Model the fold of this input.
Amino acid sequence: MPGPLIPKKFPKSVAKTNTGKDGESQAALALQKKGMRIICRNFRCIAGEIDLAALDQEVLVFIEVKNWPAYGQENLMFGINQKKQRRIIKTAKYFLSLHREYNYRSIRFDVILIRPGEPIFHLVSAFTESQ
Done:
C-alpha cells in the first residue's frame, strides 16, 4: 500500500518572483535614501527567508517586503500573521548566529508595503518577538 499523499510544492511563478524582486529593489532604494545601509538581501535558511537586512545607525533591521498591487495597509495583518512573524524571527536568530558582528546591536522588525502608483509605506517596528 502506498504511503500518504503529500502535496507537491510548486516553485513560484517567474512573474511572482520578478514582482517580489522588483519590490525588494524599490524598498532597498527607499531605505538607502533614508540613510539605512543594506547589508543583506534574500537571506534564506530552513526556518524561512528575510527579504532585506539593513543597518539604521546602530540598529539592525530585518525587513519584510510586500509587493501587493491589489491589497492595502489594512491587509498587512493577514500577510504578516503570527506564523510568518515567528518564521522571520527564527530566521533572524539564525542570521545572527552566522553574523556575530551584529550580536550586540538592537534589533527591529519592519514591514514595507509597495503598491503601484502609491508612495512606499514603511511600517517601523511592525512586530517584536515578545508579541
